[in-house]
Amino acid sequence: MNNDKEKQIIQKTAGRKKKRKSKLRENIESIAIAVALAFAIRYLVIEAFKIPTGSMAPTLLGEHKNVKCPNCTWSFYADRQSDSATCPNCQFIIDTSLYCEACNNKIRYNWPAWLWRKGTCTKCQTTTEWQDLSNRVVHGGNRILVAKFWYKFKNPERWDVMVFVYPLYDLKCKKCSVLLSETEWHNGLQCPRCGSTRFSKKKKNYIKRLVGLPGEKLQIVNGDIYINDTIQRKPKNAQDTLWIPVYKSHFPPKEDITPIWVADGSKWKINKETLVLNNLSDNNPNSSLATFGRPVTDQNGYNNRSGNNEMGDVKISFDATLSNGSNYLELVLEINNDIFTAIIPTDSAIKNGCLMKNGNVVQEKHFNIRTGQPHRVEFSNVDHLICLYIDNNEIFIYDYDDGKMPEARSFETSKISIGGNHVNALFENIDIFHDIYYTSLSSGTWGTTEPVQLGEKGYFMLGDNSRNSNDSRVWKFVPEKNIVGKAFFVFWPLNNIKFIK
Fold first, then answer.
1. What's the order of all strands across the beta sheet hosting 224-227?
2. What does the pLDDT read at residue 265?
3. 45-91 pLDDT, tens per residue?
4. Cβ-contact 101, 128 below 8 angstroms
5. Residue 496 backbone dihedrals phi, psi, to 5 degrees
6. Residue 105 and which of 37, 61, 206, 231 are 20 to 30 A apart at CA?
7. What radius of gyration, in Å, describes the C-alpha atoms of the chain?
8. CA nearest to 320, candidates 420, 195, 204
9. Averaged over 215-231, what is the pLDDT?
10. Which residues pair with 291 in a beta bridge?
11. In angstroms, rounded to a whole number, what is the distance separating the alpha carbons of residues 382 and 434?
């Protein structure tokens, strides 16, 4: 009996030891598997990146400043290096400098700035209150997720936002240590000092929007992308991202730097946030119009300099409420020598709605809007396409592209007008946007003055902040082997979480 008990005790003890060993092994194996999976996910599936610069602003932000205009309270983003910013909404110039106005010494603030809400000049002790200081504080760039496997199963598509290895390298000769910055690498490259072909390469990751695919002929003309002599239109999800705000009536300025609306004062009442037209008793057959009072340029607020390319690729949207007995609304978009007019009848009118170009009807349709209730109206001209939507319903889509390559223009003219004939109408929640305008950075940049032909494995990349982007206009093509993956999600900061389009 005693022997049997001893055997049982020995077996239990051995079992415990074996069990302890098994748990330790399991923990080690679990940790090893987790580490291996983490590395596999990072290098093969998804990797996080931080946006360093403002070349994709305002779609994606590098280090930047959150600016709130003291004149109209509209908030927008500005470049981290800017000493001033112009509010796109009211054109008020805002001081965003990091330096003291009294002695030009750098302002110091305790971190985090949002908690202490005060900055002090260490030299002259001048205090900057938070209302002013908040426009000067530098914030970090967006953090994004990139699907590295995406293009293993699907070919890159135009307008994708992509991360890739910058095609120019910073090279260091391993023999004499000479530095060659931003150099195109190729086999057989020799050091200019010692002739060695042995270099260490420092690579950089860039993020841009894909606009040119392998084998295509590309040219940028008047701000638009042409592929094989045909204008390229952005898909709706990308276009919605690339509309850049110009004006919002919900943010009325305390002081009008420039006139916002120009109209006949006897028929129009221009309030801080609304426009009211009453020409019900007017027998004039022509509509009464209010015209946006300043030219729409490619200014985006992010850069510390104003845009100087006047734009016809614009969108206006607003809520319109018409009283009983009103006849029809009239909307006008002008670009250079072309005038596009939309006629929107009410349920009191007897005529059809129509879209006109230079006074000639190009599309006609039986529809109307009801009086006594608000309607959301959206009228746009982008990439040679005129669109009218009412309450998110498509009314007119008109393609006026003639299929020919246009001549490059030194400037454009444009105008936006809204109004109507025999109406009592309230216009509110008025928003105006402009499209992205791809510019020439300097004379002779790739694809801007002459077309470029892409190779079989070459891609043409452009930044959304076209005025301030180091992209294919400077260094030409990105080889297929340099592509890292598709950027698809912003996960930081929390107030800017979104899918990338």
1. 230-231, 224-227, 217-221, 452-453
2. 76
3. 688 899 989 999 989 999 999 999 999 999 999 998 888 999 999 99
4. no
5. -125, 20
6. 61
7. 30
8. 420
9. 96
10. 262, 417
11. 9
Residue 335 tokens, joined: 């670009």
Q: Which residues contact 255 (CB under 8 A, 6 or more apart)?
A: 71, 90, 92
Helix (H, G, I), strand (E, B) or coil at 200: strand
**CA–CA separation, 308 and 90 (whole Å):** 16
Whole-angstrom Cα distance, residue 116 to residue 106? 17
Q: What is the pTM of this model?
A: 0.86
**Which tokens belong to 365?**
């349709």
Supply the pLDDT for residue 36.
56
Residue with tokens 């841009």: 208
AA identity, residue 413: T
Beta bridge partners of 418: 290, 331
Does 147 or 20 have the greater pLDDT score?
147
Higher pLDDT, residue 7 or 332: 332
304 close to 84: Cβ distance less than 8 angstroms: yes
User: Cα–Cα distance between 451 and 458 in angstroms, integer?
Assistant: 15
The mean pLDDT value of the chain amounts to: 87
User: Which residue type does 179 have?
Assistant: L
Q: Which residue has the tokens 């001033």?
A: 84
**Cβ atoms 86, 302 nearer than 8 A:** no
Q: Which residues contact 79 (CB under 8 A, 6 or more apart)?
A: 54, 57, 64, 65, 302, 303, 304, 468
In this predicted structure, the answer to whether residue 35 has a pLDDT above a threshold of 80 is no
Please name which of 232, 223, 208, 235 lies closest in space to residue 57, comparing C-alpha atoms.
Answer: 208
